[in-house]
From TrEMBL:
GO terms for molecular function: hydrolase activity. Belongs to the 'GDXG' lipolytic enzyme family. SUPFAM superfamilies: alpha/beta-Hydrolases. Pfam families: Abhydrolase_3 (PF07859). This is Alpha/beta hydrolase fold domain-containing protein. It comes from Pontixanthobacter luteolus.
Length: 293
């Protein structure tokens, strides 16, 4: 893990420098999703489709559909598209769990707003539900994608619709306003994120909603009725503080909730798929799918 954190820290972070983000992002070229590695074409059975006029890629285990279907929302602060690092993470999840995994390549801010993203998530869910049923669907994702996994479940619950069997957020972004100043204490150890920049991105994502809107910021939501949840979180991540608060709130609302913390883990440490901690995460995901505990 230390080696992985060092490697991440050597790279320039797209998530640091609030003034730089405000000055540059609104004038950037149209962002493009990182292409799926060509070797995946022979490693998995691949489906490409669209939902709400946005691309979706589904990876099935070679030779057939998985028993479970994970809908996986990639991270990127809502303003970055699919990273090249996300593809190995998704592949490792397929290998470890035997599940089929659908990846919505959703619209990002500030070029778009949340409405089209939620519309895509809903269409993807309904399409997967038609083949697997709610009882074999898990919603997952990292960082902003962890937020989307939870938000999708909240929106479906509030609309009186059926819910997935599992929620599996990786290092979820739970508060667009990053109100808990305790995150400042972790900030010096976080090689990727900083509070002030997150507040800029959070305002872009919230858009015309207050920062504490319970869907934009699930930390403030009524969590009752949600399915069993397993949250995976590194301790060198400014989101650690809110993950602990959120997990406690979920348990108080009667939601079976596990929070698995990894010492020294940077933000979305499971993308460092070669580490012992990432492999442990994937094994725990498989166990959670099978047992709900």
């Amino acid at each position: 893990m230390r080696l992985g954190e060092w490697v991440v820290g050597r790279q320039e972070s797209d998530f640091k420098g609030a003034e730089k983000l405000q000055a540059n992002v609104p004038h950037r070229p149209a962002p493009v999703d990182a292409p799926m590695p060509e070797k995946f074409e022979t490693r998995f059975d691949i489906e490409r489709w669209t939902a709400a006029d946005q691309p979706v890629v589904t990876l099935h285990p070679k030779g057939g559909k998985g028993e479970w279907h994970i809908i996986y929302f990639h991270g990127g602060g809502f303003f970055l598209p699919m990273f090249k690092e996300h593809w190995p993470l998704v592949a490792a999840m397929v290998d470890a769990t035997g599940a089929s995994i659908s990846v919505p390549l959703y619209n990002v801010v500030p070029e778009h707003d949340y409405r089209s993203v939620y519309a895509q998530a809903e269409e993807v869910y309904e399409a997967v539900k038609a083949d697997w049923g709610d009882e074999r669907i898990a919603l997952s994702g990292d960082s902003a994608g962890g937020n989307l996994a939870i938000a999708t479940a909240l929106l479906r619950r509030d609309d009186g619709k059926s819910l997935p069997a599992r929620l599996i957020p990786f290092a979820p972004w739970l508060d667009m306003g990053m109100r808990d100043e305790a995150a400042r204490g972790i900030e010096p150890h976080d090689v990727m994120l900083e509070v002030d920049s997150l507040r800029v991105l959070g305002q872009w994502w919230a858009h015309d909603r207050p920062l504490d809107d319970p869907v934009a910021s699930p930390l403030y939501a009524d969590l009752s009725g949600l399915p069993p949840m397993a949250i995976f979180q590194g301790r060198h991540d400014v989101f650690m503080v809110d993950s602990r608060t959120f997990a406690a709130k979920a348990r108080a609302a009667g939601v079976p909730t596990r929070l698995l913390e990894y010492e020294g883990g940077p933000h979305v440490f499971m993308a460092l798929t070669f580490t012992r901690e990432a492999k442990d995460t994937f094994a725990e995901v498989r166990k959670f799918l099978e047992t709900g505990a």
